[in-house]
Amino acid sequence: MRKIVRFAGAAAVCALIQGGAIAVTASQAAHGMLNTAAHLKVWNDSVTSTNWSGYGVQTTTGAKFTGVSGSWVEPKVTCTSGTQYSSFWVGIDGYASNSVEQLGTDSDCHGATAKYYAWWEMFPAASVSLSSTKYPVKSGDTLTASVSVSGEKFTLSITSSRGWTFTTVKTGTSALKQSSAEWIAESPEVGGSLAKLANFATVGFTNSTAALSGGASEPISSFTAKGGPHAITMVTGGGVTRAAPSTLNGSGNGFTVTWHHR
């Protein structure tokens, strides 16, 4: 699950990634895998989770995901009081594994003030937020993000309609399964409990594609016979819907996620 990192420590070190974790401030977020066990229920191609909403696809033949990409328009959050968080990203792994290679943006509320920023992460290592001066994010911006894999090299890249591009290359290990790909709106975990989900109204994902080893990039809908696509609805522990995805568009590569409850 996504966790707010308040200070660096040994627990933040990722055994699957070569190199140490990077500390972030209290207002920045780390991101993570789909809540599983009692929090995950699967009915055919529909899934409920306490922290994710969107779409995910899995491998069923032993092939690995070598790429994922997608675009979204940064939603404007409605902020009144308290602290709430919402994240939007694409990534590999996390659906049925203990790691996620991902990057995206946040639309958060700190009291009545909205905060927008971009980040990348090789979960469970700490999330790394991008400089808001060099890589500014505002509501209404179009972001396009991708994660690609060659051998044990993971290239994470995000481009903004404001004209900037950020790319980082990280080395993983063979323990990273590359077993799923996702396009997600997420709620964080703070102090061991899920944070309130910022009211982002609706976010739309477009140009959402993924590639398996030896194959070309394909839209979400093409993975029907390959372990998905799984529509993921975010719910509270009591079953109240927090956020829910629409059906896929006619091209099979886009959908919206609508906020329902904190």
Structural description of this entry:
By secondary structure, the protein is mainly beta. It has a single domain, classed as Peptidase G1 (Jelly Rolls), CATH 2.60.120.700. 0% of the residues lie in helices and 47% in strands. The protein contains no helices and 21 strands. The chain has strands at 41-43, 46-49, 52-58, 65-73, 83-85, 87-92, 100-110, 113-123, 128-129, 142-150, 153-160, 165-171, 180-186, 189-190, 193-194, 196-197, 202-212, 218-219, 230-235, 241-245, 255-259. The protein has a 19-stranded mixed sheet that branches. The protein has a two-stranded antiparallel ribbon with strand order 14-15. A hairpin with a 7-residue loop joins strand 6 (87-92) and strand 7. It is globular and about 50 Å long. The two termini are 17 Å apart. Mean pLDDT is 83; it is low at 1-28 and 36-44.
List the keywords:
19-stranded mixed beta sheet, Jelly Rolls, mainly beta, 262 residues
Span between termini? 17 Å
Query: What proportion of the residues is helical, as a percent range?
Result: under 10%
Shape: globular
Mean pLDDT over the residues = 83
Q: Residue ranges: pLDDT <50 for 5 or more in a row?
A: 1-28, 36-44
Broad structural category: mainly beta
CATH architecture descriptor text? Sandwich
Q: How many beta strands in the DSSP annotation?
A: 21
Evaluate the radius of gyration: 17 Å
Number of domains: 1
- CATH topology, what is it called? Jelly Rolls
How does the major sheet shape up?
A: 19 strands, mixed
Determine and state the CATH class: Mainly Beta
Number of helices: 0
**Beta content:** over 45%
Write down the secondary-structure element order.
Answer: EEEEEEEEEEEEEEEEEEEEE
CATH superfamily: Peptidase G1
